[in-house]
Each structure stands twice: as structure tokens, then as C-alpha cells.
Design a protein that fits this description.
This protein is α/β, with parallel strands linked by helices. The chain has 10 helices and 16 strands. It has helices at 25-46, 61-73, 86-94, 123-135, 152-165, 181-191, 208-216, 257-265, 271-289, 297-300, and strands at 5-8, 13-19, 50-56, 77-81, 103-105, 116-118, 141-147, 169-176, 197-200, 225-227, 245-247, 306-308, 311-315, 321-323, 327-331, 334-339. The strands form 4 sheets. It has a 6-stranded mixed beta sheet, with helices on both faces. A 4-stranded parallel beta sheet has the order 8-7-9-10, with helices on both faces. Helix 1 packs parallel to helix 9 (271-289).
Length: 345
């Protein structure tokens, strides 16, 4: 594994990057991929512009939090990329103080906070983009089925907001748990008459119990669309996914960096590579065009956004990110492209 503290580049703008380089299992594997991506982005763009110091969080949330707090209070660092540990990112989002450098957090399913931006696509983003795409085709009345728990509110807020842009409404949100999916779906029938679309978020679990209950009611069907999320795709595509629409990043679209990455490191890049490359490239780009003190809210929250290997994205004042995503329909257990990009923004 790479050493605990690595420095790349010689530029005057100091950037800290916190990665789980020596973490066990897939966390460490992803951390090392992100390290390779950072090296490629520095070689491409950043060597003379920034000095990037990479520190190993070991995959330990407490240690990651300490490293991050040290980076944002040290005085010299202009922006922090990472951490990838959710609890550490959540802790940073709760800290007060406006004078600290921004953080581009790489944690999965992180909602963001002021000045602590969520880089990765979240289930809320995917659900909202999918709902918006179907609302854009004329659907007016939506139902959201969402796992009960801490994330439910964030998913509901994003979906309702996306629908309002198209004059559509979220008629009802129904939280469910693994054991009561069938009951919740049967309740849905008495609570809302003839919805045009049903959005199913799955969280960490499988959506199959909910989908089975919906299928028994003829959903998806001619009159009712079914919208899934990118979290469904963390599992093999189940026959019950058939006919569902999903907005997600195009995995094959790591764009122009994919070939060079494979030539340099001898393995295929994935979305972890794309996110890390984009954040280092974005930081180098700001240092180049605006200067070392360019890492302001105005620059980072610029409404026209940034284009990276993960497509077009922008950061919002609440720390969430918005991404334009391709829109797919599940047909015969494969994702079939039905829209080049959802009109997320």
C-alpha cells in the first residue's frame, strides 16, 4: 500500500486529500484506485499548479475525522478532497465557522452540508432525476416508497423539489421496512388513486419485496411508470426490475481518461477513479483560472457547473450536488439507454 503521507506536485496552492489507502477490503481497494486517479490528474493538469498531500485514513472514521479537522484548521490548505468515511464527512458538515477551506467529500450516501460538498451521486439525486425525467414526459401524480430511516427525508425533499419544476406533485411518501413491504403497497392503494408513477428507493437493502408487491398490482403497466434508483444496481439486475426507469451515471462514460488510465495503471477505471480524477482536476482548474484564493462559495457553487469525466455536475449551497445523468430503462435484465441526459439542471 502507498505510504501514509505522499506529496505530488510543486505548485503554490496546497490541497489535502484523505483516502483509505490501507483500509481492509473494498474500502482500501477503492482508496488505492482514487490515489492512482489523483496521480493521473496531477500529471495531466496539476503538477505545477498545486501541491497535493495525500494522507491515509486507514478506513477509520475517527482517524479520518481528526486528519480532516487538522487539514481545515492548519491555515495553509486551500481545499480538502475526501474523506471517504461517511461518519467523518457528517462530523465535518456539523462544524461551524465560515473561514475554513471547502471540503469535497468522497463518502457514499453523504447528504452534504454548507461548505462540505457531497461529490458522489446519492440515491436522492438518482431518484429525483428519474422522477423529473418521467414528469417531463407528462406524468403528474407520483408516489415515493422509501426505506424508513435517516435518509428518507432527504430523498423525499429532493424528489418533491424535482417534480415541482415540472408542475408534478408527490402525492404521498410511504416509508417501508424489509418486513412490511406488501402491507405498505396495499396501503398505497387506499391512500392515492391512480398515480402516474411510483418511485422506489432501496437504501442499503434490496427493492425486490416492494417490486413483487407492486407487480401484483400491475405496476409497472401502461398507466403507471416505475422509477428505480442507482442503488438497485449495486445488486445483480433481478427479473422484477423489468420495465423500471433508472437515472444513473453511465459507467462506460469515464470519458477521455479511461484509455489513458488503463494504459498507465493496467486496469480498467471505475466510478471511484472518475470522482477522484474530477476533484483533483477541478481543484487544479480553479487554482489555474482564479488563483490560490479562488476556492470560494461563488466559484464552487457556480450555477453553470463543471464538466468532468462523470459528466456535468454542480454543487449547491446546502452541500448537495446535482449531476446530469443518462436515463435508462431495464429491458431483459439490461440497462437500455432511453435519454442521453436527464434534465436535472
Amino acid at each position: 500500500a502507498p505510504k501514509a503521507n505522499l506529496t505530488l506536485g510543486t505548485g503554490s496552492t496546497k490541497i489535502a486529500m484523505l483516502l483509505p489507502l490501507s483500509a481492509p477490503g473494498s474500502a482500501g481497494e477503492n482508496g488505492r484506485k482514487m490515489y492512482d486517479a489523483a496521480r493521473l490528474a496531477m500529471a495531466d493538469l496539476g503538477d505545477k499548479l498545486v501541491t497535493l498531500t495525500i494522507e491515509d485514513t486507514r478506513g477509520d472514521s475517527g482517524y479520518a475525522k481528526d486528519l480532516a479537522v487538522k487539514a481545515i484548521t492548519s491555515g495553509g490548505v486551500k481545499i480538502v478532497i475526501g474523506p471517504a468515511e461517511l461518519a467523518a464527512a457528517q462530523h465535518l458538515a456539523k462544524l461551524s465557522g465560515t473561514q475554513r477551506p471547502p471540503v469535497l467529500a468522497l463518502a457514499d450516501n453523504f447528504a452534504g452540508g454548507p461548505g462540505v460538498y457531497a461529490v458522489r451521486l446519492s440515491e436522492a439525486d438518482s431518484a429525483a432525476a428519474g422522477a423529473a425525467a418521467i414528469a417531463g414526459k407528462g406524468a403528474k401524480k407520483f408516489v415515493l416508497l422509501v426505506p424508513a430511516g435517516a435518509n428518507a427525508g432527504a430523498v423525499e425533499a429532493r424528489v418533491a423539489n424535482a417534480l415541482s419544476i415540472y408542475g408534478a406533485t408527490l402525492a404521498v411518501t410511504l416509508p417501508y421496512s424489509a418486513s412490511d413491504a406488501a402491507k405498505v403497497v396495499s396501503d398505497m392503494g387506499s391512500l392515492v388513486e391512480a398515480p402516474d408513477a411510483v418511485v422506489v428507493a432501496s437504501g442499503d437493502g434490496s427493492p425486490v419485496a416492494v417490486l413483487s408487491a407492486l407487480k401484483a398490482k400491475g405496476i409497472p403497466g401502461k398507466a403507471v411508470s416505475l422509477i428505480g434508483t442507482e442503488r438497485w444496481l449495486e445488486r445483480p439486475i433481478d427479473p422484477l426490475y423489468e420495465g423500471a426507469y433508472i437515472a444513473t451515471l453511465d459507467q462506460s462514460e469515464t470519458g477521455p481518461i479511461a484509455d489513458r488510465f488503463k494504459a498507465t495503471y493496467n486496469y480498467q477505471p471505475d466510478v471511484n477513479v472518475a470522482y477522484a480524477y474530477d476533484m483533483v482536476a477541478l481543484s487544479a482548474g480553479i487554482a489555474s483560472s482564479v488563483g490560490p484564493n479562488g476556492f470560494s462559495k461563488q466559484v464552487l457553487e457556480n450555477a453553470s457547473g463543471f464538466r468532468g469525466s462523470t459528466g456535468l455536475f454542480r454543487f449547491r449551497a446546502d452541500g448537495s450536488s446535482q449531476r446530469s445523468m443518462p436515463f435508462f430503462k431495464v429491458e431483459k435484465r439490461r440497462l437500455k439507454l432511453v435519454g442521453k441526459q436527464t434534465a436535472g439542471f
